[in-house]
Write a structure and sequence with these properties.
Blueprint: H1 2-17, E1 32-35, E2 38-44, E3 48-55, E4 57-58, E5 62-71, E6 82-88, E7 92-95, E8 98-101, E9 104-110, E10 116-125, E11 128-138, E12 140-141, H2 142-181
Parallel strand pairs: 4-12
Antiparallel strand pairs: 1-2, 2-3, 3-5, 5-9, 6-7, 6-10, 8-9, 10-11
Helix pairs in contact: 1-2
Length: 183
Amino acid sequence: MRRLSCLLLWLLSAPALAHGGEDHGDARPPVASTQGELHALGATGEVFEVVLKHPAHGEGGKTPLRVFVAEVDTNAPVSGAQVELTLTGPTTQALAPRMDSPGVYLTEADLPVGAEFAAVITVTRGERVDVLSLGSVHLEAEEISAARGAGASAGWLLGVVGLVGVLGLVAWGMTRWMRRVTP
């Protein structure tokens, strides 16, 4: 029974020792991140701070882009600014996002799947101007997101199989123990 208890405790603690598969190599630059299904690119200038968000996955074609503009000193949203976004890649697109709400500007870009565009934004408000490089804008195919979802379901399946195995070992141990106790 002592061996069974030790085995059971070891099996229950094994998931805590498992490595989640994350890469602990060189960290990505803090200006680009993926949150959920959005790519976020950001830059800070002398006057303005800008964040550009767009879908991470799609079928290509017209893709919505959301630009957030704030003042560097106060972090207050910037209203009434003239925002110009230039995407340079297989084609060059000069976009003029329109203000949706204070600090939020919307536009659409023609993003083919797999193509990368260098994003440069110019924000002008009165006499104050900032020209900022945001990095690379790209759209991944929908199949990639489906493959990531399949990995999560495989982990779920592995957990269920492990739980069934542990419950089977407990039942087997209880049966052996009951045979010894019962004359």
